[in-house]
């Protein structure tokens, strides 16, 4: 059965002497696997189609909705060359792809998430702040995984009346000023940082305009989001380890 799907290549794995297996997030069918026969050959018509982060329209054959597809033809919509050529952008894009690949179930369409991933890659390639885009997408993936933090009430007493002054990853979100002494591992944050974190939950990356966030605020946001993910998702992200090493090298050189 032939079908036409719009997709973004999350991962490409060599298979045999000349083939590649692609993990692709599609708008119509969710995350699926595709066989790109002969894609490792230099002159293959599927060589460029099977590159990571490629956004394309694929025509695939699948014997059943759950079976691996075989690419019959395809047309690249956005190649995202820059995301593969520039090391820092490549690291960010690889992390977004790994988040998606590991947290999205197979064959479950999430068109809204597809649109957000496409927008994130487009915005990074256009030169917008990759760190901010990454943090927004991390929050979106937490929602997909069912672990969105509580940011409007105290996770210890449930109050919405008291000032929320800290974030506690293990307890799941914000802590009020009255409960702060009981939260030994909480991170104190300014109202501005908390406002940004709430905005991250709601932002549509397709409509992200010019956004400037101080280094200190980005560092606080990253610390909480990453700690929260580690506590609740229990996943070791290979691409994030590399991204963090790269960020440290860049910081040390400044």
Unreliable runs:
none
Coarse structural class: alpha+beta
CATH class division of the largest domain: Mainly Alpha
CATH superfamily of the largest domain: Recombination protein O, C-terminal domain
Q: What's the total count of β strands?
A: 8
Tell me what the CATH architecture of the largest domain is: Up-down Bundle
Main beta sheet: 5 strands, mixed, barrel
Widest sheet, order of strands: 1-2-3-5-4
Task: Report the order of strands and helices.
Answer: EEEEEHHHHEEEHHH
Give me the number of helical elements. Answer: 7
Beta-strand fraction estimate:
15-25%
User: Which topology of the largest domain does CATH recognise?
Assistant: de novo design (two linked rop proteins)
Helix and strand topology:
Elements lengths: L1 E14 L3 E8 L3 E7 L18 E7 L7 E10 L2 H5 L1 H17 L7 H15 L4 H16 L18 E5 L4 E4 L10 E2 L2 H12 L12 H19 L4 H16 L1
Parallel strand pairs: 3-5
Antiparallel strand pairs: 1-2, 1-4, 2-3, 4-5, 6-7, 6-8
Helix pairs in contact: 2-3, 2-4, 2-7, 3-4, 4-6, 5-6
Pfam families: RecO_C, RecO_N
GO cellular component, one term: bacterial nucleoid
InterPro entries: ARFGAP/RecO, DNA_rep/recomb_RecO_N, NA-bd_OB-fold, RecO, RecO_C
Model description:
It is a single chain. By secondary structure, this protein is an alpha+beta fold. It has two domains: 79 residues, OB fold (Dihydrolipoamide Acetyltransferase, E2P); 174 residues, de novo design (two linked rop proteins). The protein has seven helices and eight strands, in the order βββββααααβββααα. Strands 1-2-3-5-4 form a five-stranded mixed β-barrel. A three-stranded antiparallel beta sheet has the order 7-6-8, with no helix packed on it. The chain is elongated, with a radius of gyration of 20 Å. Belongs to the RecO family. InterPro entries: ARFGAP/RecO (IPR037278), DNA_rep/recomb_RecO_N (IPR022572), NA-bd_OB-fold (IPR012340), RecO (IPR003717), RecO_C (IPR042242). Keywords: DNA damage, DNA recombination, DNA repair.
């Amino acid at each position: 059965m032939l079908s036409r799907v719009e997709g973004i290549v999350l991962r490409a794995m060599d298979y045999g002497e000349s083939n590649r297996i692609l993990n692709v997030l599609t708008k119509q069918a969710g995350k699926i696997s595709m066989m790109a026969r002969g894609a490792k050959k230099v002159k293959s018509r599927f060589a460029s189609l099977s590159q990571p982060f490629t956004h394309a329209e694929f025509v695939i054959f699948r014997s059943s909705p759950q079976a691996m597809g075989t690419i019959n033809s395809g047309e690249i919509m956005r190649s995202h060359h820059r995301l593969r050529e520039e090391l820092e952008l490549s690291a960010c894009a690889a992390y977004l792809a790994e988040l998606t690949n590991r947290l999205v179930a197979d064959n479950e369409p999430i068109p809204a998430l597809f649109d957000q991933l496409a927008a994130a890659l487009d915005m990074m390639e256009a030169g917008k702040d990759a760190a901010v885009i990454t943090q927004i997408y991390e929050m979106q993936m937490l929602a997909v995984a069912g672990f969105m933090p509580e940011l409007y009430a105290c996770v210890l007493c449930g109050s919405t009346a008291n000032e929320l002054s800290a974030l506690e990853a293990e307890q799941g979100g914000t802590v009020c000023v009255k409960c702060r002494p009981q939260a030994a591992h909480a991170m104190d944050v300014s109202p501005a940082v908390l406002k940004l974190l709430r905005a991250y939950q709601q932002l549509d990356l397709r409509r992200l305009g010019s956004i400037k966030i101080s280094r200190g605020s980005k560092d606080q946001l990253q610390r909480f989001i990453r700690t929260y993910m580690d506590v609740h998702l229990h996943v070791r992200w290979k691409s994030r380890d590399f991204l963090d090493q790269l960020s440290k090298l860049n910081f040390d050189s400044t």
